[in-house]
Amino acid sequence: MSSLAAILPAAGLSTRFGRRRNKLLEDLGGQSVICRSIEAFASRDDCGLIVVATGFSPQDVPCLGQKRVTLCPGGTCRAESVQRALECVPETIEWVAVHDAARPLVSQELIDRVLGAAQRSGAAGPAQPVHLTIKESDTRLPSTTCRTLPRGRLWAMQTPQIMRRADLMTAFEKCPIPLSEVTDDLQLMELAGFPICLIPGEDDNIKITTPMDLAIARTIFTGRQTTPDLS
Length: 231
Known about the structure:
By secondary structure, the protein is of the alpha/beta class. The chain is 29% helix and 22% strand. Strand 2 (27-28) and strand 3 form a beta hairpin.
């Protein structure tokens, strides 16, 4: 019995990518970026449904026509897209994994670890340590700084972020701030008072935002294909 659904918000305009073509349609090893992200969950026996919030159609992206893939219209912001996709997940599915459509290199091992942590704690997501010095400012640059944040307590979030479907529904209902200000799914859970577990993420699980990110992703993907199996 399928216990997991995956939600992929894919309605963004790729404005930071700097090209006319949507970054999710860029080629990554013979498939589009979005298809690679979908395949990470479509290949799992425990994932019975993949909901993609997007303006694309199966005519634009053939992999969207797969049996387990459901499409819904994206929202005006990421959180609204996730909310619309969540409404497509039936109550019979307990767990929901929200994953950036622009993270096509997520490993099965990472999905397994996040799901295991969520099943133990209620909600979980992967995170990476912040190595740069982070300064806070109340305006765009150029400006003066307010303070330097202690980076030993800072974590850069990745996806998938996994939580119970019912809890995420509750978190949306209780959200005390505009959805346009929500940048992270576990942020919704925090605001609703749910405990969150962070686990180590993966360096390869990059999010494609700029052309440089795409070049790095292609290098990583090629390396995976050429690395010999020593098992």
